[in-house]
Amino acid sequence: MNKYIHLTLVLLIVSGLSGLILGFTNEFTKDAIRQVKLDNINKNMNKWFPSVPLENKEENATADYPDLSDKNVVNIYEAKDISDTLEGYILEVKAPDSYGGGMVLLVGIDTEGKVVGFTYLSFNESGPGANVRENNSFVNRIVGKDSVNDVDTVTGATYTSTATLNGVQIALDYFDKNLKE
Amino acid sequence: MSTSDLIKLGIEAILIQNVILTQFLGICPFMGVSKKSQSAIGMGLAVIFVMVISSGVTFVINDLILQPNKITYLQTIVFILVISGVVQFVEMFIKKTAPFIYKTLGIYLPLITTNCAILGIALINVQPEKEFGYAEMFVYTIGISIGFTLVIYIFSTIRERLENANVPKAFKGTPIALITAGIMSIIFLGFAGLV
Amino acid sequence: MTKKQNFLKGIFSENPVFVLILGMCPVLGVTSTLFGALGMGVAFTLVLVLSNIIVSMIKNFIPNEVRIPSFIVVIATLVTIVQLTMQAYLPDLYNQLGIFIPLIVVNCVILGRAEAFASKNNILDSTIDGLGMGIGYTIAIAMLAFIRELFGAGTLTLFMYGDVNIKFNLIPNNAFEPISILILAPGAFITLGLLLGVINAIKFNIENKKSVGRS
Lengths: 181, 195, 215
Known about the structure:
A: four-stranded antiparallel β-sheet
């Protein structure tokens, strides 16, 4: 019996120490991890809406839109310039039917409902068409459109580019339905 | 999710997101235990059994303990401990209650703790972007483990034939098996537009 | 065994990928870009060296019965530390490696070295063993990624962080279409199969020459 107590004690000490160390690591990296996502959104915000200053958007950017009618729309960030006029929105959308799942896009839409840019937040790298993200002509085909239903897909990466177009279209549909003034 | 969505998810898990051929999880048993179709089936059944139980347990733990307390960074360490516990427990349980099953699956159970498909699927199930509920998790896990069994069985029957094939000496064994797996993977890419 | 032999065995005679065929999941999963493979190699080496050091340090305090669970806890802790740090400071790499970072925990190579080597040897030897194995693993997956990215996409990605993007485009003006199947899932299996075959052929060739020389 004594032996079992000893064994359990050793395991408990090892696990307890590990938990403690991980707690410290988490404390240390927590803010940096949140900052990474914010930085990504801010950078694109500044790139797509040049008049918007580079600053930290609060994480609860969706607070004004509690009713996200489309479950593929994850987050909405407002792009406002220095004088607080609305320039457009950045929508974080999940693209359904992407290869292996898990494709998340950031889509910038101006107040007139045109795509000003998009980028991938997460992406299945081992799937086909991982090179779509580098394909500039594909990006240029989408930017400036208010509907991407008739945009051609990329040869050799049909599946991924179709998923991308679906994601962008979801953002545009959501804009038309809920955000257009 | 409606029933038809769940069926779609199940088919997707078996064929399109096949755990071995497209997600590259569980390669060690795939290469190691596929020389005989008999043992491939044994391994496959053991994986179905353990994967469903351990994914269920880890999902509940994540839902009830890790999420509410905001300690999801402990996922990896908690899950691997739970999985090795589950494997031990399953082994003891079927040894007592079903000696026949133990005879067929017994030798594969210890190998399963380090099968990365088990931990991998447990971690994928709780990824925030998947947004799985209990029903989706259950269907997805069963689909994935059936996909594993299907592929390892097909692969083992091919390998049994390869034994007699006239393969260059340097390519005998693992190299030709990997190339065969690559061709199977091309075939499974074709399922991509299915659902 | 000298220290030099101890270091070199992980790279050549006991290379975890090419000779022992262990820890294959990340070998196939993260080698579609050179950057992913190098990142995985560094993370793997770091975890392996640290786990070898810690295991050889605590081996005398851990009773035999709970040896394996304790080692798993140590490895899982190290992996989570690497994962959180990478998520915070190298997000591009983190996104590329995805699920394969936490899965370092179940990589048979790491637990295997802890059990077979570090739990029986002193700290210095364990460190050298870990370094050798880690570097052998990195070289192997970097080789595979080099071939896959070069022929599959025509590029070589060395580093990605925010706006810093060190990437060589080796097909100027899209002069020809790369063999994109190589960076897809099937390409991983086929390239590794061919690579192993070629290595075997070279090995047999050397052995043949040796035996001819002797007779």
